[in-house]
Amino acid sequence: MSHGTNRQVKNLLDVSNDEKRNFLNSFDYVLTDCDGVIWTLIKPIEGAGEGITSLQENGKRVIFISNNSVRPHEKYVEKFKEGNINASMDDVLHPSIACVCYLRKINFKGLIYCIGSAEFKKKLKEAGYEYIDGPHEKIEDFATLWKAVKDDNPVKAVIIDSDFNVSSTILIRAEIYLKNPECLFIAGTTDMMLPITKSFKIIGVGPYYKILEEASGRRAVVVGKPGDALKDIVIDKYNIKDPKRVLFVGDTLEQDIGFGTKCGFKTVLVMTGATSKMDILTHPKKQELPDYYLENIGDFSKVFEDIKPMNKI
């Protein structure tokens, strides 16, 4: 698959058995996205369970790296069971967990202003952090607006993640806190658009966090994909010694493949989610193109089958 100056991206199933074997032997860890790779919003993706199982049975440590903190942590494990995937809660990392890891790493103390889902806030509370949110009332005039956004709370960090109730009032209040240069600015997911289906997308968190960056003149510490801070969190949490021995599997070019490349991981794109083959052909950033692609993560079982018999994976 090639177009213009883009390097060729090959289907892993189409390469020689020697190339397949060399690739499979080149990594010990598999980090994979969930939405669009393991399941859709509605149901498990057919064959995904077989693909994950084949990786695990061949000695690969599989970890699930999602940008979705809206889904309760326990629901991830339930969905794994629905898809016949053997995984525990510790095998899952998403922005609310990554954010707690980051706050602990920097020994953060203080009040948080959180723009996020109920599940995200629950994770902060469980970790012992105090947060405020809002305002939630309807604003119709400037006098009411000013009362709602200006307060004396000693906020030490503004955190933004998926929140379906974001308003201009909430963003104004966050920007006021960020006028304090000692106030941390942290973002979880930064997806500009969220794919509901392959042909239908909605606005994600990205535009909102970009508004705050532009208004405040600050750059957020991004603890979701493809943030720089997430690399250290993943490596530390899962005791990864050599990033070159890691494979990242995802369905998006910027968030998944871009993150994997940035970390020094190998990358495979699957075509069951947000990205089409035309997107690969026309994508302007070479560093966000994968090493290989597969139609479905379940195709890993076919790749392993192709290279049998063999001595070791």
Which helices and strands, and how do they pair?
Layout: E1 10-11, H1 17-24, E2 29-32, H2 48-57, E3 61-65, H3 73-82, E4 92-93, H4 95-105, E5 111-115, H5 118-126, E6 131-132, H6 142-149, E7 155-160, H7 168-178, E8 184-187, E9 193-197, E10 200-203, H8 206-216, E11 221-222, H9 228-237, E12 246-250, H10 253-263, E13 266-270, H11 277-282, E14 292-294, H12 299-306
Parallel strand pairs: 1-14, 2-3, 2-12, 3-4, 5-6, 5-7, 7-8, 8-11, 12-13, 13-14
Antiparallel strand pairs: 9-10
Helix pairs in contact: 2-12, 4-5, 7-8
- Tally of helical segments: 12
Q: Which residues form runs of ≥5 with pLDDT under 50?
A: none
Overall structural class, as computed from helix and strand content, comes to alpha/beta
H/E topology pattern: EHEHEHEHEHEHEHEEEHEHEHEHEH
Question: What characteristic shape results from the CA principal axes?
Answer: elongated
Biggest sheet layout: 7 strands, parallel
State the share of residues found in helices, binned by percent.
Answer: 25-40%
What gyration radius follows from the Cα positions, in whole Å? Answer: 21 Å
Task: Give the termini distance in whole angstroms.
Answer: 27 Å
Mean pLDDT: 92
- Beta-strand percentage? 15-25%
Total strands: the figure is 14
Strand order of the largest sheet: 1-14-13-12-2-3-4
